[in-house]
């Protein structure tokens, strides 16, 4: 990616599964807690970004074994129960607030340690005083290069190996308090007292909950006073799953507000009641017009019919205020964001940065950027929407948005630039230094791009036991597509007709029974299931020996096929409306009759002996040769390799080889990036 990124507006609806990375706050807390636990912890769904890599590198510098697998998103940490192997080290925390604060407190557990800590220029300006002052009472001292006590980076930290009762001023950042709370269980008898209050309370609750998840609950015995009743080193949970980042999710909650009707985006693994306070953004978005649904373990966001403004308090989830601030330029009334004073001391002065860039787009804010520069106590921002002003500012060329090394500036304006302001797809926003998203979301712009994906349909046909189902299921999971097994449709109908004792030769009785059936769809995970009169039949019912023996006979009846055809074709819409980037439909006549226009059509085959063996291995009684004979010889939609479909013989191929082959064909079809 170059020095700047011109955002391409979405001219078609955004659809698909947003690739949201793991939470930065949870990943960095989990790294510290795992290092302070006894033994090995496997972190799954971890974020790999600049901030987490800084902490991983620092832990390694300190002598910890930390094995990271970027492809699998896992980190294996061997905890040493509170011991820190290196007594001396030089650590660079970049501009990572969590690493800076958490490591500073963590290091004080090392007896007579001497550590030099530095950060980027921006980090040198960020608040550390509350924490350094609190640690001093336990004989831990921070000295500048002249050997004088200091309250900011860089410093040499001389550590005592213990934490006694301490008092912390965490008014500038809740991380100053969280850092202390995470070493509290290893400091028997100590208590942490907070003077005054802190910002971003939910992050303190996240720390509390995670200490409990690692076996050492800490409790607030009095308001602002924490203790650990059962102190000791943390207890590894063995495997620890990290939630997707709720702040990063805010961009994908926002996107359907401006990417057109029929937009539908999914965030998998999203837990509205999880550890992250930033999930509260979803509530604000709803108040502003978002259409959200929690389905299974996914958050599904549909097109917002309108963007309403309003007044909101963002104190507790301030990282997401930038997402709303950019959307607010398109709202139908002004938006006021209150209580965000503390964000003026984050990656950059976020309120000032936001006001400055909105003004660059011709948008009026209150206070203005000038007023914000003159007073650092102003703590709210009102944005006055004005589409004409946006057009005026970008009439000649895209407006270059400065990002101030702040990932959230780049991402929130990236979302705004996705709006088709001119109605002709003309870009109007350019993001400077787009790589700054690597702090928490290195692949943000690719994740955004992948939602632009054109809908892809894949037809997979073939005889019985040729591996259609396992191949299709695997592919749909890999690509975030909806999987539809039309064999199950015929099996369901067969089961119901059999139950009504319908003779397959009696057309009138067949029609009569079919007329009483209502068809609907239930989506579970990546698969769509047919419900007959609101009931989805079980696998056991669908694959019983009786159904195996009669399904082909019923499936050969033209009335049965006509009855289900429109329903099957409609699954394309079902997949689109539910935010899937594509669909994989398997059966006998998908490439020839149901979806002859599918993007990719596959015909799978395998030797009869191999197929018989597969069924035997599954322990299923099935007459596959007989079924294939009926299926291929019937007059209505027989089993054929449709002209133009790609034939794949998988007799000697493993499942993953077949999946890989088809995946390549889908990519070659040129529809998805
Ligand atoms: O799993 P297996 O390949 O053995 O069969 P299935 O896909 O569950 O399909 C069961 C039966 O439904 C097939 O033998 C066909 O008779 C019928 N079928 C069909 O006629 N057309 C389809 N598109 C899918 C299945």
Q: What does the model show?
A:
This protein is α/β, with parallel strands linked by helices and 673 residues long. 37% of the residues lie in helices and 21% in strands. The protein has 25 helices and 31 strands. It has a seven-stranded mixed β-sheet with strand order 27-28-26-29-25-30-31, sandwiched between helices. Strands 3, 4, 5, 14 and 15 form a five-stranded mixed β-sheet that branches. Helix 14 links the parallel strand 23 and strand 24. Helix 1 packs parallel to helix 2, helix 2 packs parallel to helix 3 and helix 20 runs parallel beside helix 24. It starts with a strand and ends in a 5-residue tail after the last helix. The model has no long low-confidence stretch (mean pLDDT 94). Bound molecules: cytidine-5'-diphosphate. The site of cytidine-5'-diphosphate has 17 residues, from helix 16, helix 17, helix 20 and helix 24.
C-alpha Rg, in Å?
29 Å
Proportion of beta-strand residues: 15-25%
Biggest beta sheet attributes: 7 strands, mixed
Q: DSSP helix count? A: 25
Gross morphology is globular
Strand order of the largest sheet: 27-28-26-29-25-30-31
In round numbers, the mean pLDDT is 94
Report the strand count: 31
